[in-house]
Amino acid sequence: MQKQLHVLHCIFSLTTGGTETMLVDIINRQIQTGLKVSLLIINNDLDQNLLNAIDCRTRIIRFNRQPGANPLLLLAKLNILIAAKRPHVIHIHNNKLGRLVRLRRKRLLFTAHHMGAPMEYCGKLNISAITDAVADDIKARVPQARVTVVHNGIRTADILPRTDYSTPRLFRIIQVGRLVCAVKGQDVLIRAVASLVRKGREGIELSFIGAGEDEQMLRQLAEKEGIGNFVKFPGLKNREYIYSHLKNYHAMCHPSRSEGFGLTVAEAMAAGLPLLVTEGDGPWEVADHGRLCRSFPKDNVEACAEAIEKLIDNYPESEACARQARHYVRRFDIANTVDAYTALYNSIAAQK
């Protein structure tokens, strides 16, 4: 009788973020499909609600380490745990763990979640990349790397779709993500809308759902650009809120500077929202390499403004594209992600 496949997921912190919330979905689905799953949370930084959402059949191990504390102690505890549990696959979600795990290294799988992921500790490991763009980025830097693309996944069936397709008087644009402009590019969107307003375009409202270090700067930028009354900051919201409220908006704009996948973009597709994204990175790939969105060059405020204007002025066409996207995005369902990981786990576990 074949032994039950045991996967140990390792992550530093379990906070509300795209990687962490998706990991909870992956773990729960893996448990449902019959895998034995353990989760190691190294640091004491965690969201209790997210922890409570994990299937109770998951073995959760918490080191409760203070971030930055003694790395030698962490190295010892981590490898003692691996020696005791002997998992078939050790799935790490941070490149630094590639240096700390010394045992069963042939059973290590590192998932690269973003462009430019450091590879000095992981280049010789089994690697999964969340998009072709991330895989190409890795291979350009480490040509000999063994990389398999496993797309991120969302719970497509849980996202409420739009039902009102009437022409809006107030055009509401949403962006969901950490308020960190160096990655997400929210400042580009504010400046683009301000440019349209100065040219006489009326009736646009922006909402940024999320929290982060640049919130105050973005608020000040909106005021400086003269559109403070039209920019909303609802704050950090849980996924259930987002899944039920995306349908109330008329488009999502994701002007990212560096994005490996863009879970919130896939979620907007599932909700039936027309999309505007940066050319060439993860969200553009998720939107079928630009076929299912309007796109613009990175950091180009005027091109972003032009894309917004074209989307609004051709809204029936934009909505027709969004309806196609609702069907296309099903390939990124969490069930497909878990199936792909299971196939990769089996391949790794079979290695001598």
Give me the secondary-structure topology.
Elements: E1 6-11, H1 18-32, E2 36-43, H2 48-52, E3 59-65, H3 71-85, E4 89-92, H4 97-100, E5 108-112, E6 126-129, H5 132-141, E7 146-149, E8 171-176, H6 181-184, H7 186-198, E9 204-209, H8 215-224, E10 231-235, H9 239-245, E11 251-254, H10 263-271, E12 275-278, H11 282-286, E13 294-296, H12 301-313, H13 315-328, H14 334-349
Parallel strand pairs: 1-2, 1-4, 2-3, 4-5, 5-6, 6-7, 8-9, 8-11, 9-10, 11-12, 12-13
**For this structure, what is the CATH homologous superfamily of the largest domain?**
Glycogen Phosphorylase B
How would the global form be characterised? elongated
Into how many domains do the coordinates divide? 2
> What is the CATH topology descriptor of the largest domain?
Rossmann fold
Give a description of the structure.
This protein is α/β, with parallel strands linked by helices. 40% of the residues lie in helices and 19% in strands. It folds into two domains: 6-153 and 333-349, Rossmann fold; 157-331, Glycogen Phosphorylase B (Rossmann fold, 3-Layer(aba) Sandwich), CATH 3.40.50. A seven-stranded parallel beta sheet has the order 3-2-1-4-5-6-7. The protein has a six-stranded parallel beta sheet with strand order 10-9-8-11-12-13, sandwiched between helices. The mean pLDDT is 94.
Can you give me a brief rundown of this structure?
The chain is of the alpha/beta class and 352 residues long. The chain has helices at residues 18-32, 48-52, 71-85, 97-100, 132-141, 181-184, 186-198, 215-224, 239-245, 263-271, 282-286, 301-313, 315-328, 334-349; strands at residues 6-11, 36-43, 59-65, 89-92, 108-112, 126-129, 146-149, 171-176, 204-209, 231-235, 251-254, 275-278, 294-296.
